[in-house]
Amino acid sequence: MQSFSVVIVGAGPGGLACARLLAEHGLDVLVLERKSVVGPKVCGGGITWDGLLKRVPGDLIDGSFPAQHIRSNYQQTIIRSSDPIVATVRREVLGEWMCRQAENAGAVIKTSCLVNRIDHDSVSTNLGDFRYRYLVGADGSGSIVRKHLRLGTEKVGVGIHFQVPGNFENMEWHLNHNRFNNGYGWIFPYRDMASVGIYGAKPYNNPGKMLASLLQWTKQRKIPTAGMKPRAGLINFDYRGWHFGNKMLIGDAAGLASGLTGEGMYSALVSGETAAGIILDPEFDCRELQRLIKKQQKHRKIVEISAKNKLINIGLMEILILALRIGLIPFSMLEMAD
Q: In which domain, by residue range, is 105 found?
């Protein structure tokens, strides 16, 4: 049985960031990815200026947007900035780049590797068994590491989108209760297509009704989705801790995504870097992750309050957009990055 200082389950942004840092400091690291290719995921692909955008090379960026178009039941506004507020990046492109960084640092990455069982010091997979000193769960909303730790998952969001070919000019956010309940609809443009989708948190939003609303909305907007297959994914925002002795959870596996927006790449990155920091130095400063967790909990409370009834939800949306319009709160309030 091969032994590694750290075994990371999952090769998303968090797992790869963690692997790169550990490998750069001389640790032997193994990353196990169940998919055959690193990167692809159901995701709008939006990254924020205050978050991941500053860390990604410019040639990976598809679209960059200093203006955000926001609409609700009664308002519409454009939030502008001198810097790009949100950009879009294809997850497969980001994954390939981060994978290359981790491998160049010395990490071993095995794809098409399915974890079957986790023991106190080893993992069993279809490609063999591997012993570890530290185990990091970076394996998303359905995390097998989270299940091994016997943590439940009740608070989840659902994202459904179409990848629509064509040229789309504006990045749009739609907070309309009648169509999206306490979730939202989005249009995130890329170079030659756009991610057009809907997000909502369960149990307040039903995936079947969400898809029907998305189809009605795209038809109304004359966005050609006929014959296209929608793609859906779950977002875990049921945070119940991340550090459990020599086992750690990061990103969606820890439930660190935003229940309000569904954004999870920045929290995956920060938690992955923090896990690496703790492994390298038990006295590592975790303040950035702690700030992120506090913000994530605020987002979760907003979701729970907005779900109580229609009037509360509409009122919160209208107050939020008014506050954005007059500059009372920054757009980053909606992001996981500070």
A: 2-41+90-154+238-308
Strands 67-72 and 115-118: unpaired
Whether the model clears a pTM of 0.85, i.e. scores above it, the answer is yes
Give the total number of structural domains in the chain: 1
> Is residue 72 in some structural domain?
no
Residue 181 lies in a domain: no
Q: What is the chain's alpha carbon radius of gyration, rounded to the nearest angstrom?
A: 20
Is 264 inside any structural domain?
Answer: yes
Q: Which of 272, 162, 283, 308 is nearest to 226 (CA)?
A: 162
Distance CA 68, CA 81 (A): 9
137's enclosing H/E stretch is: strand 128-137
Q: pLDDT tens across 202-229, in order?
A: 989 999 999 999 999 999 999 999 899 9
7-43 tens-digit pLDDT:
999 999 999 999 999 999 999 999 999 999 887 666 6
